[in-house]
Specification:
Blueprint (H helix, E strand, L loop, with lengths): L2 H46 L4 H13 L3 H11 L9 H27 L2 H9 L4 H31 L11 H12 L2 H31 L7
């Protein structure tokens, strides 16, 4: 490695890490929180087989999983202004990432809910519990233990996927690397450095996932 490249990488690392912490991580957390809320509602509607709403949820999943994330970003950020709806880049990215990942996570949670014996639902009714209380105290805790590994993988995937926000001008970590590279023209070194930082973040999340699975395993849920 020549001295010029080394100096560039040393100078750019703290800048890239700063944008990773200040933009990429919050973007991931907010998007995942939205996705988790959406997926839980969609999964519960399907599990309860609510007529009308169930079809709406299936349509949402079909549309979202059947179209590319990049296209969805462009429709929301560049397309909606054509009908008078304008969003800033960061909120637009949060909405798109949240709604996109929510469709996949909804299927994960739905599968986890259906893995819980229906007999427990009937037993809850027999002791006078309402459907919401049965779901909250009986079914959801068991389903969450089953879904936890897959949901954790969705979080890790979303963290990496936030790099696509650069296409709509969100100044996150990857976009900052593009800006720096536009000045110094060291694509291989800079993009490799970004990859290393993403790897650092994902390694932390993987460690947290493993810790969570070990804790849940104590209650008879996930086995590691």
């Amino acid at each position: 490695m020549n001295e010029r490249l080394w100096n560039i990488l040393v100078d750019s690392f703290p800048k890239l890490l700063e944008y990773g912490i200040k933009v990429t991580v919050p973007l991931t957390i907010l998007s995942f929180g939205l996705a988790l809320l959406i997926s839980l509602l969609v999964a519960l509607v399907q599990y309860a087989n609510v007529r009308g709403l169930r079809q709406v949820c299936r349509f949402y999943i079909w549309i979202t999983r059947g179209t590319p994330l990049l296209v969805q970003l462009y429709i929301v950020f560049f397309g909606l202004p054509g009908i008078g709806i304008t969003l800033e880049a960061f909120p637009a990215a949060v909405l798109v990432f949240g709604f996109n990942e929510g469709a996949y996570m909804a299927e994960t949670i739905r599968g986890a809910l259906e893995s819980v014996s229906r007999g427990q639902l009937e037993a809850g009714y027999c002791v006078g519990l309402s459907f919401p209380r049965i779901m909250w105290h009986v079914v959801l805790p068991q389903a969450f233990r089953t879904a936890f590994p897959a949901l954790s993988n969705s979080l890790i995937s979303m963290l990496k996927g936030t790099s696509m926000a650069a296409t709509i001008s969100v100044m996150e970590m990857f976009r900052q690397a593009q800006v720096i590279n536009g000045r110094v023209y060291e694509s291989l070194g800079l993009y490799t450095e970004v990859a290393v930082i993403y790897l650092m973040f994902c390694t932390i999340l993987t460690w947290l996932q493993h810790r969570g699975e070990k804790r849940l395993a104590r209650y008879g849920g996930v086995r590691t």
